[in-house]
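Much of the work behind modern protein science is quiet bookkeeping, done one molecule at a time. The protein below has been through that process, and both of its lines are reproduced in full.


***
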Amino acid sequence: MFSLVILPYITRVLGPKGVGRVSFADSTTQYFIIFASLGIPVYGVREVARHKGDKKILSRLFSELLVVLLLATVVLSVIYLILIYLVGDFRSDKDLFYLGVVQLIFSSFIFDWFYQGLENFKYIALRTFFIRLGATIVVMVVVKQSTDVFLYYGMLTITVIGNSILNIFFISKFADFSFKDLHIVRHLKPIFTFFSTRFVTSVYVILLTVVLGFVASKESVAYFSSSYKIYMVILAFVVAFSSVLIPRLSEYVFLNKHQEGIALISKSLAMIFSCGIPIVVAVFFFSKGIVLLLFGSKFLPARADLELLSPLILVISVSNVFAMNVLTPRGKEGQFLKATIAGMILSIVLMFLLLPTLSDKGAAITLLATECVVCLFLGYYSYEYLTDLKINVKLIFLNLLNAVVVFGLANRLMHLIDLPFIYQFLISAALALIIYLVLQIVVVNDPFAVRLFQKARSLVVRKSI
C-alpha cells in the first residue's frame, strides 16, 4: 500500500536516472541479503511451525539458525565492502552501496520467519504498517529534489534498522537466545537446499536488474524496476492468502491431515484465480494510465514493460501455491530447486540474448518466460500430491471472458469521455471494475465474489443498526 503512495512521488522527484541509481544499488544489496540469509526464511517457517508449542525447542532452534545467519552476514558484508572498492560501477555510487551494507547487516535480525512460523501475522502487519507509515511521511518531507537520492535510500535503510530493533525487543516473549547445546550441523543440508533455490531464483529476478544496470542505461533500469515494483505490490496482495498458509499446511503434513490440507489449497487457488485474472487483464489494458498516474510522463516507456509483466501476477501466484503450499510442507524442496534451476538456465540464455538489444523490454520478456517455465515444472512435481484437488475450469474461463470483455471495452471506449486522459482512465477503470463485479455476482456466480458481496452487505447492515 505504501509503495503505491510513495512511488508516484519518488519517481517524479528523482526522475528516471535517480530511480535507476537506487534500483541498481538496492538490487545488488538484495542479492547479498539472499546470500546471507541462506534458505532460513523458508526453512525457518516450516521448522518453527512444527515445534511452536515447545518454547525450549523453539529457543534452541532460533539460536542455531540465528548463529548461522550472523556468521553468513559477517562474511558477506566483508565481501560487499571489498567489491565496492574494486568495481567501478559500485565505487561511483559508493555512498548508496555503503547504505546497502548497513541493510545487509541489520537484515539478519529481521527474523520474520520465526513470527510467521508462529502464525503471529498480526505483529508483523502492525510493525510493518507503522514503520512504513513513518518512513513514507519522512520521505515526502525530506526528499525534495533529484539530488536527494542518498536521503531516499537512507530512509529505506532506516526502515530495515527499525524492523530489526523491534524484532530483537519482542523475540524474548517467544524464545531465548543461547550458545549452549547448539547443533547447527543438523540444519546445514536443508538450509543449503533452500538457499540453492533462493539463489537460483535470484538469478532471474534480482540479478536481472543488476545485469541490466551494467549493459543498459540507468533509465532502462528505472523503467523495468518501476514496472516490477507495481507488479510486486499487486502480487503481494494476490499471494497473501497462500503465503500465510505455509505454517498451517506444514503442521497438517506433520500430523498427516491430507484432506484438510487439500481443502486449504483449493481455497487458495480459488481466491488466486478470482482475484488474479481480472487484475492481470486490467493491468494489461490500462497500463498507460497506471504508468502516467504513478510515475508521470517521463516513465511512459515503462508501459510496455508493465504489459509484459502483467501475466506474472497469475503465473507466480500459482507457482507460489505449488512451491510453498504443496512441496515445501512435505519436505520436497529438492523438487522446488530443480524447477528453479530449469528457470535459471533459460533466464541466463535469454538475459544475454535480449538485454543488450531490448534493454528493459528484454528484461521483462526474460522474466515472463522464466517464470512460466518454473510454474510448469512446479505443477508437474506437485501433481502427485494434488490428485484429490478439483478445479472449476468453467468458472476460470468465465472469469477470463468477463474480464477481457469488460476491461477491453472500457479501454477502447474511454476516449469518448471529454476529459484529460488521466480522468478518462480513472473513470473508465472505476466503471469497468463495478460492472465486472456485478457480472461476477449476478451472471458468473463466482463464489469468492458472492462471499465478498455478502460480507460487505453485512457490514453495512451492522453499521446502519
Remarks:
- The radius of gyration is 23 Å.
- The chain has three domains: 1-203, 206-391, 402-465.
- Residues 333-382 form the longest helix (50 residues).
